[in-house]
């Protein structure tokens, strides 16, 4: 039966709680609850049903008296959370509900006089208020002046951190908040967890807990039925459901553990904002170490080849221009890597053609080029090729862009990142022609095959030419084609056209002629647009061509 919409004042909430505490403290109630609990054995579902049915006999008339309909899933906390959300953070109400949950749980060591002792402390001030009664010797007083049973505190007055024997700590995500370290019985199923929520696992019952829906956080299509095991870390239990029930759950989780941190956690790092994303769902996040607060870059999911390459480079450290590897791990069965946090993309260090004369741009590009050649030489000396050199995969160090042409070359001045396509050389696996950034890849690599160090160097040349002159002729061609990139004819045709444009530009440039290169780049822009139009026309003609059986 649904609860009626009758708001509770604070005094009414106190009065209802006092009657419930008195009823749950009666000898007859304790004997009946104990007998039903014993008969249930170790079956958590039968235990939960016993608690619901025995407690309802006492609880039903009381909550009905205060204007609510009793239901099998009803409980004092459900009334407060559903009808008086402004009372949810009240320390005294929370303490009373904590005691109610313990009185209704035979597994807790609460004596028959606990309810009456509590009433005496609440009404007469207890030990801290000068009142009489046994409560002062059996409880610890909180900062809010409300006494809690001594069994809820450790000998130091702090809640214990380690899970008890036979339990496991799980992480729960509710909306944007995450709650860590909730203790549940080892091997608990989703359905059993809901039953435990409904019967006071969190210190107060979560009414209608059976309406909650659970899933593995971040895993699409992985809803969990009641028979499924409750996921354990590193997986996070995501919970959805009716807003009032979620409010009750969040209140209970806040009482049970630490304040929520809405940021997901992978290993020793909490995720912040997204720094970038790539194909196949790969994302790079700003991450913060949970202990020292240091910031880093976390990439998930990382490819197996990238993990292998970063491990090998870290083993050979220091490798000039390779980011420091801070941590490795897996999340939902897929690897993540944590590296040092770097600065902006290389493009930020290139002078803008419209604001600087060609001679000034040439001086800056020469400095950057020398630094990057040294980095590729260091990488190739470790018997690896990067296979995806691009402005997006070259980041400035934390000190900003390099200045001057001194022989001093700080390790972090420029760094190569994204080793997802990196391969050992010699002996590396072949790559397809379309793998990597077509804007910058070498002419030879467009045909596919094993990548070589000279392919990295040619890609660097295109990057530097971009820094010198701005947009290269084939970049608009590729940008226009990406909308139809899934069509094999378009993709293969455009890649072939880009390869021919690069070859022809190399022929135009000659040797050592910067001015001739500038003229060639300007000349090819119009040609690139017309070439793309020709590719599209050929593709449309093939689509329209009639087929004959």
TrEMBL record:
SMART domains: S_TKc. This is Casein kinase I. Transmembrane segments: none annotated. Residues 122-134 have a biased composition (Gly residues). It comes from Alexandrium monilatum. Pfam families: P_C10. Residues 269-549 form the Protein kinase domain. Residues 109-138 are annotated as: Disordered. One of its GO terms (molecular function) is protein kinase activity.
């Amino acid at each position: 039966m649904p609860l009626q919409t009758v708001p509770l004042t604070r005094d009414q909430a106190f009065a209802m709680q006092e009657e419930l505490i008195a009823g749950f403290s009666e000898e007859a109630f304790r004997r009946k609850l104990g007998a039903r609990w014993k008969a249930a054995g170790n079956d958590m579902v039968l235990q939960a049903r016993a608690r619901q049915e025995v407690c309802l006999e006492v609880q039903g008339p009381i909550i009905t008296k205060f204007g609510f309909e009793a239901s099998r899933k009803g409980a004092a906390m459900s009334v407060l959370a559903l009808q008086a959300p402004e009372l949810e953070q009240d320390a005294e109400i929370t303490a009373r509900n904590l005691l109610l949950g313990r009185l209704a749980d035979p597994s807790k060591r609460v004596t028959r006089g606990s309810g009456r002792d509590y009433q005496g402390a609440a009404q007469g001030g207890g030990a801290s208020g000068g009142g009489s009664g046994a409560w002062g010797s059996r409880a610890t007083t909180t900062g809010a002046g409300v006494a809690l049973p001594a069994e809820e505190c450790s000998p130091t007055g702090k809640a214990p951190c380690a899970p008890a024997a036979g339990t496991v700590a799980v992480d729960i995500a509710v909306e944007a908040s995450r709650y860590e370290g909730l203790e549940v019985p080892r091997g608990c199923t989703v359905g059993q967890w809901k039953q435990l929520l409904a019967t006071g696992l969190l210190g107060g019952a979560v009414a209608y807990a059976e309406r909650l829906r659970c899933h593995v956080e971040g895993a699409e299509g992985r809803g969990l039925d009641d028979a499924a095991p409750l996921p354990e870390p590193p997986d996070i239990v995501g919970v959805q459901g009716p807003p009032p029930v979620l409010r009750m759950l969040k209140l209970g989780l806040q009482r049970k553990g630490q304040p929520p941190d809405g940021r997901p956690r992978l290993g020793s790092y909490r995720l912040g904002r997204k720094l970038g994303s790539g194909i196949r769902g790969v994302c790079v996040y700003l991450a913060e170490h949970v202990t020292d607060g240091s910031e880093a870059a976390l990439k998930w999911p990382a490819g197996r080849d990238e993990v292998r390459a970063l491990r090998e480079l870290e083993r050979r450290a220091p490798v000039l221009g390779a980011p420091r590897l801070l941590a490795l791990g897996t999340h939902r069965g897929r690897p993540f890597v944590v590296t040092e946090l770097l600065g902006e993309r290389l493009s930020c260090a290139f002078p803008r053609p419209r604001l600087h004369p060609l001679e000034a741009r040439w001086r800056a590009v020469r400095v950057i080029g020398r630094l990057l050649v040294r980095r590729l030489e260091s990488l190739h000396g470790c018997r690896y090729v990067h296979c995806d050199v691009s402005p997006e995969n070259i980041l400035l160090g934390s000190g900003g862009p390099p200045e001057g042409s001194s022989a001093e070359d700080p390790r972090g001045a420029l760094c190569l990142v994204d080793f997802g396509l990196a391969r050992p050389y010699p002996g590396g696996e072949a790559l397809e022609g379309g793998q990597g950034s077509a804007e910058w890849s070498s002419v030879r690599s467009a045909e596919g095959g094993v990548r070589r160090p000279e392919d990295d160097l040619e890609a660097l040349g295109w990057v530097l030419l971009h820094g010198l002159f701005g947009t290269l002729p084939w970049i608009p061609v590729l940008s226009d084609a990406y909308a139809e990139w899934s069509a094999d004819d378009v993709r293969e045709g455009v890649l072939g056209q880009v390869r021919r444009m690069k070859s022809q530009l190399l022929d135009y440039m000659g040797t050592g002629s910067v001015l001739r290169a500038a003229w060639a780049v300007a000349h090819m822009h119009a040609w690139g647009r017309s070439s793309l139009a020709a590719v599209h026309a050929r593709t449309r003609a093939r689509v329209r061509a009639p087929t004959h059986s």
